[in-house]
Amino acid sequence: MTPEAFQQQFDVPRGTITALRRYEAMLKDWQQRMNLVGPATLDHVWERHFADSAQLAALAPSGQKWLDIGAGGGFPGLVLATMGWGQFILVDSVQKKARFLEAVTESLGLDARIICARVESLPTLGVDIATARATASLKQLFGWSIRHVRPGGTYIFPKGRRWADEVSEAQEEYQFDYESHPSMTDAEARIIVARNLKRL
């Protein structure tokens, strides 16, 4: 996917593309010193990371407060922040990754707060939406995020080919309503959107 194709697909202004180009350059620069993304994905950043993150915007209204758990290279949180899709709290326990997230946030002037900590150690954050990508199982993500999401909030988790198994595992410990949405970047993946989450 080219930047031009991304702009057409997600109907974002040219300024967003300019910002994402800067993000791409920073990602490739910092990747030389630390492992932010799989090395094989570096030549496909616009599809594998930017579009994969941006597609979540269609599943939630803009202006919400998001928590991104295990934010790593900033996906999906910083891409959605670059699109102006809300306020973001990005949590990662690895200090050098948190420094990268802070550098991108500062360079692009994003509405994002970076916290270097384990999410389970944080006081309740009171967000509208929790998300995470390639971080943990659905059951584990629910365990980490349930106390941070306000009543009536939403959980949006991209999942790979084992998504149905992960839903079944999570249902052993939690009650929730959910929808699964096709991923535009992986035919075997789904995006799980869950609500009304409660422990059994």
Task: Outline the structure in words.
The chain is built from seven helices and seven strands. The chain has 200 residues and is of the alpha/beta class. It has one domain (3-199): Rossmann fold. A seven-stranded mixed beta sheet has the order 3-2-1-4-5-7-6, with helices on both faces. Strand 6 and strand 7 (190-199) form a beta hairpin. Helix 1 packs across helix 2, helix 2 packs antiparallel against helix 5 (95-108) and helix 6 (138-145) crosses helix 7. It is globular and about 45 Å long.
Write a brief caption for the model.
This protein is of the alpha/beta class and about 200 residues long. Helices cover about 35% and strands about 25% of the residues.
End-to-end gap: 43 Å
Shape summary: globular
CATH second-level architecture: 3-Layer(aba) Sandwich
CATH fold annotation? Rossmann fold
Strand neighbour order, sheet with most strands: 3-2-1-4-5-7-6
Radius of gyration: 16 Å
The topology string of helices and strands comes to HHHEHEHEEHEHEE
Kindly report the average pLDDT value: 96
Give the percentage of residues in beta strands. Answer: 25-35%
Number of self-contained structural domains: 1
- CATH class equals Alpha Beta
Range of helix content: 25-40%
